[in-house]
Write a structure and sequence with these properties.
It contains 12 helices and 6 strands. With 310 residues, it is mainly alpha-helical. The protein has 2 domains: 232 residues; 72 residues, no CATH class. A hairpin with a 2-residue loop joins β3 and β4. α1 packs antiparallel against α4, α6 packs antiparallel against α7 and α8 packs antiparallel against α9. The longest helix is centred in the middle third of the chain and has 29 residues. The C terminus is likely disordered.
Length: 310
Amino acid sequence: MGVLGFVLAALPFAISIGTSMGDDAIHGTNLTLSLEVPATVSELVSKWESVEARVFFGFEVAASFCILLSWYPFKLRYASCIPSHGGCRISMGCFGSVSWATWRQFVPPLGLLLVACVPTVKRDDWTMESMVLVLAHGGAAMMMFLGFLMAEAHTLSIWPFRCPCDVLEKGSKQYRLRLRSWMVAGVCFALFNCMLGLQHIAVAGWQFNVISFALEVVAGLAMLLNHFVIVVYSPERHWGNRGFKGRLNTKSSKDDPAQSSREAGDRAREEQRLAPESESLSASSSSVRMTVVDSRFSSIPVWDEAVLES
């Protein structure tokens, strides 16, 4: 959903560029004068009446709600360290502390939701009142990008956010892909902010805006690609509501015998634990019960589909 929001929001603008280029060729005008090139995605979708803004709003709001409802930092073993297994916590001073899983669950998707719901204002239209929108939108963008970069750096155990828990084994293919996507997102986001700072100091041309716009898009797509890698390499994808479906036969398991052995042991323990429940299912089908997919997540219930269908 997030990727579609970026792509479909840019599609009408690309169509308008093609139309303007055709008109410029006919009338002999300059493209830079007949079409305003935005420096950021936020500027592109800043006006609600535009097609880009409505498409971006719908898809990004849907994506943020999907992430919030998934609870993936707690349900996917390779997403983050969790408190029940000695996961780390972030000290909030006098406000206590929160776990890194909670940080990853709420901060980036809420930032994405606010970015879509609180549009910014173009620089030429800034007023004292509109600065409230600009600052709120900028804070939401920082929540989305920095919240993700910090949480992923902790999961990958990158300084200064090192994690003592062995969430993800270094050297595995999943680790390498996630590290590369994290680096691309971080570098592009840093360069994007540098270019925004330079834009406030000196007046830049449309080429400058194109580079700035591309950096923000690449940073956002790299962040979304990181989530895709997490889902693809999660063994929980092969589980049903009552345990495992088929074999845990992923490439990362083949490359790592120790990981394959751990996953096979987890599977055997889960099948042994769930065997008595499956035998008593038919006797108690008249009442709706709740089962748990994995003992690690005993506090997260999952509805039994067989019971609900009956």
